[in-house]
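Here is one chain, start to finish.
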Amino acid sequence: MRAIVESQDPTSKDVDDLMIRRFLRARGQDIEQGSALFLKYLKWRRSFVPNGLISESEITSNLAHKKVFLQGLDKRGRPIVVSFGSKHLPKKEKGGVEEFCSIHSRQNMCEVTINHSSLVNGIQFRYPCINFDSDYFRMPAGQEKFVAIQDMEGWGYYSNSDTRGCLAALSILQDNYPERLGKMYLVHVSSVFMAAWKLVYPFIDSRTKKKIVFVENKKLKSTLLEDIDESQLPEIYGGEQPLVPIEES
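Its structure:
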């Protein structure tokens, strides 16, 4: 696969084997399909992230609404991202879908500096700085995936219902950052969201579908504790961690 992509796009030489391997896994070890997906990603990245990173100044509207939080690690050492669907207000955000996609791209690339350390199951993680996706960011050594808690409480009203934005963010995750998502918990899901889910579901690839878990309200804490230690679980879900906005993490 490396030989194929380097022959068609010389910039592929700057990418490490871990990244090549993720795109290959995303297409079931099919070299031709994996190469096509990777080359498409490189083209997208040059257009969408021309400077190599997304600065806070480019996503000010989204950051102002405090919708994404980044903190702690699960029991497998994967960073935890918490986001709130009700705080996404597309009609009040100047950047529209493009900025919304930018904050999700930034989230997936983990370009926000994490400068604190965490203790999980007695092991201290200090997020050593490594080169991933041609960006320098902080992740536990050898870790490729993150865990997402998507809180949908209050989503579905006129001001925050944005199926188009959800589809755009989903496309970025699947097509440009494959094999980055370890698991996604959907919590506080309403009937309104389930109606929208029926529209989104056909666009989700089979590998991603297996990583999505719908959590019952009465089993919220117990379900999250299966993968997340109480010391790393956000306080709003019965844990000990205060929420940390992504720009402050």
